Each structure stands twice: as structure tokens, then as C-alpha cells.
Amino acid sequence: MMSTIAGRIWTRAIATGAFVLASQATLAAAPPPAVLVNSAEARFERVVQGMSSGKLPAALAEMDRLAERYPNWRLAHLVHGDLLLARSAPIAGFGNAADAKGERLEDLRAEALTRLRAVRDPPPASAIPRYLLQFDRRQSNAIVVDAGRSRVYVYENSGGTPHLVQDFYSTLGKNGVDKLREGDRRTPLGVYHVTARIPGAKLPDLYGWGAFPISYPNAWDRMAGRTGYGIWLHGVPTDTYARAPRASDGCVALANTDIAELAKHVQVGVTPVIIADTIEWMTPAAARDERKGFTDQLEAWRKDWESRDAGRYLAHYAREFRSDGMNLAAWSAHKRRVNASKRWIKVSLDNISVFRNPGQKPLMVVSFDQDYSSSNLAQRTRKRQYWTLEGSRWRIAYEAPVGSVPLALPESFPRQRAALAPRR
Questions:
Q1: Given pLDDT bands bounded at 50, 70 and 90, which one contains residue 5?
Q2: CATH number at residue 158
């Protein structure tokens, strides 16, 4: 009886906050997906269930294995201490060790709740993130970050249909999401791409295994006046297994073992990274319908360009359109002059990707290889467009060739080491 009461006190204490621990009946109705069965979260969940049901010896045995498997996991060692205390006396609640106080304890409680939620409230089995409408042929995977859950999901391109293959706990910006300016310690929201891979040997220990810089700020961010730089997916210090859910200066940080796994799915310059505040889910059938509705308009734009009818072609552009310093009026004048100099135009699009941007404003991020030929010019370009919804019609708000992205160091990078260099 004593161990049962202690376990219930502990689980009530850990559940302090917005997320309430699910009942055993709820768990039975929604088992975790296969990708989570042997994860740190699933094993931690078994410990919590053992404590709440009064099976402290079994919980302690599982906790021993967990602490051995992850020797630098502070949360695991904190709970291990609670379990040891519970064998001899009632425990007052979560975090009974003398050195687990104040803000540090709240960080560990937040981590515990975040990890348990990943097991107890997994993504809908029959749904995919709304953003993954179309991969291009080269994109083997996409990374989707659910900031509200501090979770990184890896989706495989399975014949054009996204398929969840792995997911990981993550740390995000201290002040949340929707980065607006340099130094605000927020994680950006949007569609980005991995631009580089930096091994940990060239970085300070703060970044652990290494890093994958992403393309923040993208063209849409710059049009909106957002500033800042150096947003990376990276590891954690080698003496640490995980950080609190909100502890970075804007980057997305993963356990070193997890980012090493993530690396198996990353193609530099190709893999998209989509960061959402809360993921919108939809069925694959609904995603196909949304994709077709959009790509039909993309195809109409291509055909109208070939027609040399400037009015039909320019009707595809939004009132707020910008490109290389030109607004819609300047772009229209330029395109009318160009079309007048052509006897014919042929345009083909290949390696098309279509990702819906997270957020309330409807926005499509489209990338493709454009093969353009005309009576007096031929060129092949990798192009990116942003399409917004005006009324019931998608129109182009930005268009430009895809350029290289310079490497920028995070704001958290030690200033005394202003360049990448091997660790000492």
C-alpha cells in the first residue's frame, strides 16, 4: 500500500501543468507506434506506469537499465533517486533529491511531460503533416518539427507518399517560436532546407555530435523584415543527454545519439526542414486533393507563359509580388518587353517539390528545375516560388533562382571562437 500511494503522489506531482497524464485505459486504446516502442520515452513511460500502479521493484529495475543506457540523462537519474527513496519512505513528489530544486526541477518536469506526451498522444496513425504535399525525386526524406511538442519527425518519401520512420525529443528557443529579429531567442517557423553538415570535431563542445545549418532567413522571411542568422539542428554537450524543452537561443537541439540517427536521413542542399508551432494533420487522400488543386494552377502558369500572352501569364502574379527588387508593376513591364522579343517560348518543369508553409496565412513553397528555351535564349535554372491565396486562386508572391546560402554561426556560438576550428 505504501508503494502504491507513493507512486500515485509522484505521478500527480509530475503531471503538474497543462498536460494531464492519461489513464491506463486510454493507453490501451492508443498504443505507441513502432518507431517509439524501444525509445527512451517508451521506457520512461514503463517506469511511470510501474510507479503509478505500485510496482516499484519493476519500475526500479527498468530505471536501472535506462540510467545505464543513458548515463548523462539528468531526468533519468532524478527519477532513479526518487525510486530508491520510495523503497524506504513515502516520497513527497517529483524530484526528491536535495540538489533538484527550483528552475532546474521545473525544466526536468517539463522534459518528463514532453517525453510522456510523445508516447501517450502520438501522431494520428492515418494522417500526415499537411505541409508535405509533393517531394521532388531527389528528396528521400523530410524533417518536420512540431515546436509545441518539442518533437522532430522524420518522414520518408515512400513513392511520393510521406511515411513516418523516426521521431526525436528536441530543445527549441528559450522564448518559444516565430523568430522576428536577431537576439530574440526564438525558433523560426517556415519551410527551410539543410545547407551544410558540420562535424562535431570542428565545433565547440556545446554542439556535441555536430550540426546541420538550415536556410533561415529564407526569401519570405527577408520580405517580412525578419532578421537573425545561424539557425542549426545540432547536438548537445558531451556530458549531457538532453536539455530542457525551451533552452536554446533559437536552434533545434537533439541528443547526440538522436542527431546521429537523424543524420542518416539528411541530404545537404536537398532535405527540407519544416518548423511548425503545431502540426496540422490531414489524410493522404486530402493531401492528394490539395496537391492536385495547386499543381493544376502551377501547370496553368507554365502554359500561359508559353502562350506569350502577357495578360494571361501576369494574371498568375499576386498584388504583393516581389522578385530581385522588382514589384508587380516593374515585373509586368519587364515581362511584356521580353515576350514582345520572342517568336516562341517553351518551358518545362522537373524535380518539383511543393510544401505548404506552416501558419495561418496560406502559402506554398515551390521549387523546381526550369528548362526554358525561346527563339533567342535557352537556359536551365533551379527556381523557388512562394504562392499566396488571393480569394480562391493561388498567385505568385515571390520568384527567383535558388542561390547558395552562406554559412552563419549561431548567436550562441562562443564569440572567442569566431571561426570553425577543431576542438582541443
A1: low
A2: 2.40.440.10
